[in-house]
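Annotated sample (chain length 332).
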Amino acid sequence: MDALDEIRKRYHLAPPTFANICKIGTQPERSTIFQTSCTAIELQTFTIRPAERNWLRHINEHTCIPYPIREPVTEPWHKASLLVQIDLSGQPWPTKITQATRKELHGDLMRIYLVFDQVLRCIIDVLGHRGDGRGVSVGLDVLRSLHARVWEGSGGSGSGMELLQIDGIGTARLKKLGEAGVRTVRRLAGLECYHIERLMSRNPPYGQTLLRQVARFPLLTLVVESLGENRTPLEGDGGLWMVGVVMGYENEALPVWKGKTPWVSCVIESRDEKDNGRLVWFWRGSVKRLEGDGGRGKEVVVGVTGYQGCKLRVTLACEVLVGTMLHKDFEL
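Output written by the structure step:
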């Protein structure tokens, strides 16, 4: 059995869904991976009910979503796409539906997310099998956004959207924090409880309760350094270079978010003109494995084929939380 057959059987997806995944081009954009997930055969059961039609059209035509549908909104994949996009946008759902219809849509959305999770993980594995490092990073970006229920980097750098992951913070409180220059969980965690209460116009112990929650949000650390060449380059080939990677976290206690210990992934990809986007190395594991000895973190030495001056990028992030991603660009 070859590797692709193993991946197909691992996720139990319909043959047309898997075939569509295998058609994704090299170094895909976020939009390509998202749309491929939306068109999975497994989502065909989520047909548009009569009471939902105008509401879905309103989302498509009158809300700020990144990927509007360019054709009449009639297909099940249109519904899946629009439901996920409005949910990840941080905007309140339009009110032009009954409470019963809203309840049905929320139930559909939870099941749609389960399908998306399987399809996205399959996409990441297929792109990893190809050695497409850029594709793996983008796939992890979409997976992280789906689980966090907000787009990674949505609204641009410093938009504050990552704060919506915190229980009790909605759009109104997000605005208050943004006006005070608080746009990241890391920044919020550094405030005093009384400062939070003043910003939010809330009484104690609101600040302490919020700080206890964000104290366990993973504050990842990443150190990367070239350790030099390990052998003489062969003709037409690069040398073998050793790269030291140290992954850890700043939190005083083991990060736990909403009762679960997050998993993290680390991707090294080439950023060089000769082989831009090539997957160099991939690691995935529980944040528990980042504890290391003496609090320094998990230390790994990676062998990289390349040449002096070759450009690489290392990306470390939690798989289910936005606002945790770290990039390190360096040269051999």
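Annotation: Residues 194 and 229 are 53 Å apart (CA to CA).
Annotation: The chain has eleven helices and seven strands.
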